[in-house]
Design goal:
The protein is 61% helix and 0% strand. The protein is built from eight helices and no strands. With 168 residues, it is mostly helical. Helix 2 crosses helix 3 and helix 6 packs across helix 7. It folds into two domains: 56 residues, no CATH class; 62 residues, no CATH class. The protein is elongated and about 115 Å long.
Length: 168
C-alpha cells in the first residue's frame, strides 16, 4: 500500500510540476503609446508673406537670367509695375517680356524629355526653393510625358506667375 501511495504522490507531484511548467505565464510588458496631435499643412503653407515688388522682380530676374539685375533695369521694371493698376497683370507682362529675351537661361526641350524628374526637381528648387512632393512630381512627369507640345518655357512661365512664387 505504501508503494501505491508513493506512486500516487509521485504522479501527483509530477502532475503539479508539469502543470506548473505548462500553465505558467510569462509577464509581458504592456506598452502604451501616446499620439501627439499634429496639424498637417500643405507644403507651401509656410509661405504666407507677400514679396515686395523689388523682391519679386529681383528674384524673378535672377531665376530667369541666372545673374543679378542692374539698378537701372530694376528701376525700369518697378516703374512699369507701378504704372499698371492690376499688379498681377503687370507681373504677367514682366514675366512675358523677360521670357522673350534671348538671355533667359532655360533647359532645352531634349533635357526636359530625357530626364523629366531632374527637370521638375530643378525647376521647383529654382522657383520655389523646395523639393516637389511625390504627388507633384508624379503629376508633372505624367503631364510632360502625355503632352508633346509642352516645353520648358511653358513651365517657367507657369512657375514664375504662380501664387507660391509671389510669397516667401
Amino acid at each position: 500500500m505504501n508503494m501505491l501511495t508513493s506512486d500516487k504522490i509521485a504522479i501527483l507531484v509530477l502532475m503539479i510540476f508539469s502543470l506548473q511548467i505548462f500553465s505558467s505565464c510569462t509577464v509581458e510588458d504592456n506598452y502604451i503609446y501616446e499620439i501627439k496631435e499634429q496639424t498637417i499643412l500643405p507644403v507651401n503653407s509656410e509661405k504666407d508673406k507677400d514679396k515686395s515688388n523689388v523682391q519679386y522682380i529681383s528674384i524673378l530676374y535672377t531665376n530667369l537670367f541666372r545673374k543679378a539685375m542692374s539698378p537701372n533695369d530694376m528701376l525700369d521694371a518697378l516703374r512699369a509695375i507701378e504704372s499698371i493698376g492690376d499688379k498681377q497683370i503687370a507681373f504677367d507682362i514682366l514675366v512675358s517680356k523677360y521670357m522673350n529675351s534671348d538671355e533667359v537661361v532655360l533647359p532645352t526641350e531634349e533635357e526636359m524629355r530625357e530626364d523629366p524628374e531632374k527637370f521638375i526637381r530643378d525647376t521647383y528648387k529654382r522657383f520655389f526653393v523646395r523639393q516637389p512632393t511625390q504627388a507633384e512630381l508624379t503629376w508633372m512627369i505624367n503631364y510632360i510625358n502625355s503632352r508633346p507640345e509642352v516645353n520648358p518655357e511653358h513651365f517657367y512661365f507657369a512657375f514664375a506667375t504662380s501664387n507660391e512664387h509671389f510669397h516667401y
